[in-house]
Amino acid sequence: MPQDLSAVDWPVRTERLSIRPATADDLDPTWAYRRLPEVGEWLHRLVRDRDEYAGLFAEPDRFAATLVVERDGAVVGDLMLRIESPWAQEEVADRARGRQAELGWVIAPEHAGQGYATEAAATLLRVCFEPLGLHRVTALCFADNVASWRIMERLGMRREAHNVRESLHRTRGWLDGYGYALLAEEWRDRQVG
Asked: Is the pTM value of this prediction over 0.85?
């Protein structure tokens, strides 16, 4: 079942960026950077063939939404938004359904270092907590992916887990993994304060 993002008025704009659900026209612009080894280093799946990527792009993970990040009409990156249900006891499971999300981000290397990932992810947090009304947002990464966990910390997310050698990297072997999270009330308190 695809993610229901109908509560959001797309595109969502920041001072410098525009964020919207991906379309078929975004295949080549995203392939241009996702095929690069330095981008694939930390991604869940390394796709080396455009046709394979095209198939995945046409049928993305049915449990996640791909959002495109644009600057002045050009694609500079993409975001993953996976709305999910946290663990709940059976009697209250219906109240937990779809109340949590996992985020992910990729910025094209030529646009890295300009704060786009932080700006886009901060906006996606707002989308999660305001129009989508979620309770909690998480993000995961390899501990060695310093750029990613620094973004999580800049966003005010709290490191909830440091899992020792629990993540198997395709070339680096077993690595530590980090899990970060932020609650809606924590996010709201930071907006007021």
From this structure: yes
Our separate counts of H helices and E strands in the chain read 7, 8
Q: 150-190: per-residue pLDDT in tens? A: 999 999 999 999 999 999 999 999 999 999 999 999 999 99
Please give the distance of CA 170 from its chain centroid, rounded to a whole number: 21
Phi-psi region at 149: left, alpha or beta (left = phi > 0; alpha = psi -120 to 50):
alpha
Q: Is 182 helix (H, G, I), strand (E, B) or coil?
A: strand
User: Residues 19, 69: contact at Cβ < 8 Å?
Assistant: yes
Phi, psi (degrees; rounded to nearest 5) at 88 = -150, 150
How many domains does the chain contain in total?
1
Which ranges of the chain does DSSP label H, i.e. alpha helix? 27-34, 37-40, 50-58, 93-96, 116-129, 146-154, 184-192
Domain membership of residue 148 as a residue range? 12-192
